[in-house]
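Aim 2, interim progress. The first record below pairs a target sequence with its structure tokens.
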Amino acid sequence: MTGSAWRYAGRTFLWDLATVFSLGLALPWRMAALERYKIQNTRFGDLPGDFVGTGGTLFRRGAALWALTVGLLIAGGVLALVVGDAARVGVLVGLVVVMSFAAPIAYVLFRGTVMRWLIEGIRFGPVALESRLRRDTVFGCYLKWAAATTAFGAVFGGIGMGAVALWAGGFDKAGRAFASPSTTYITMFVGLLLFYLVFLLGLGVLKRYFLDRGLWVAAANSTTVLNLAAADHVVAAGEAAGSLGEGLADALDVGAI
């Protein structure tokens, strides 16, 4: 991989400004420009990379989702301005409730659209990718993750409430009878800290398995590589990377997408 990090950062900053001032309309072209810069500065051996996806294609696929989110915000804001003071609060509350459901759904569906668009746009010489990834498959991965996270939170919440009840019901008094107050508070703090760390670890594991792994599996199972024979005689480019640096980067997830 070649290219300049400073040039990429500059392009990102300018495209971010365009996206903000266009109320998100420039987002597809931003994603296409940045992805094109990355892939065109990437090689698989001596096969040059390219990205043929266009902002126009992504815009057409995601225009309805943009209208669902930004359009609802604009319509709700205009309605709140024209109605009376008594109804304005109700309109704003209703807008918040609707957006709390519409925005996450639109985001998940748009991510499914983007994933397929990204896969289909990648080229390495004559080697191309064809994707059959469906948005409802991506939505299903998010639903599994949400359900598992909710169940995990409910179980941990029940355990936490039970521990508090036991502590208040007798363990606190018993502990104070055999230990000093400072030792009791330190023990309680360490227990809460361990409980919190295990809870965060569990959330991370669930996200890795149901969402990150689930999306990669869904993308891989729905992707076909075209003209793969063109890579049979690919020649390695550049110098070999040291095993220490590569292993350390993998261990720390450096550069992971």
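The second target in this work package is listed in the same format:
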Amino acid sequence: MSNASYNQFCPVAMASEILCARWTLVLLRELIVGSTRFNELRRGVPRMSPALLSRRLKDLEAAGIVQRSSVRGEPDIYEYRLTKAGRDLQPVVEAVGIWGHRWIETEATLANLDANLLMWDMRRNIDPAPMPNRRSTIEVIFSDQAAARRKWWLVVEPGKEIDLCSVDPGFEVDLFLSTDLRTMTEIWMGYTPIARAKEQGRLTVTGNRQLEAKLKSWLSLSLYAKVEKLVA
């Protein structure tokens, strides 16, 4: 992964040479949660340049952690999937996330707000089961963001992959969530309950009553939201 070596036989040092290059653990996080194509991975690591993403994927492939294969019928498109060695890293990556959620101060976390990353994470954690058995469109409005990042649409259709749009998809909206980016991030990370945000006037929910009533059921929170924080 790097020209530099610790030159130690210690397994921690040897693993660090592969895993501790910048962005590698974050990229592994995306692969673990199911992203397989280059553009999907880019959406999960929006601040990572395409050139560096390509390089890190090649590094992980060379290390036997990722396997690249062409998509059937689309020879110019590739998928990247974890090998057995890569899948063995899931508890490692999740443990790093648990440690970070537990021990890094809340304010330090909330200093790194990112609407694109938040919405992409929300999209892949939505549970369609409690939702009506038809297409549902949810519009999320970040009142404090510039026009280009203010409105996002989640389109949930039975039997289809959930779609995230930053441009109006043209469907009738079933539910509106209006808030600011920090509040939505606090909710997502488990810092602020939905009910409290609504009571404080920081979150407004309007539209389909069934979707609103079951909001806490279909809007699954971050993997780390239930982890107890040990610092404020």
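The domain at 112-218 is CATH 3.30.1050.10 (Nonspecific Lipid-transfer Protein; Chain A). This observation will shape the mutagenesis plan for the next reporting period.
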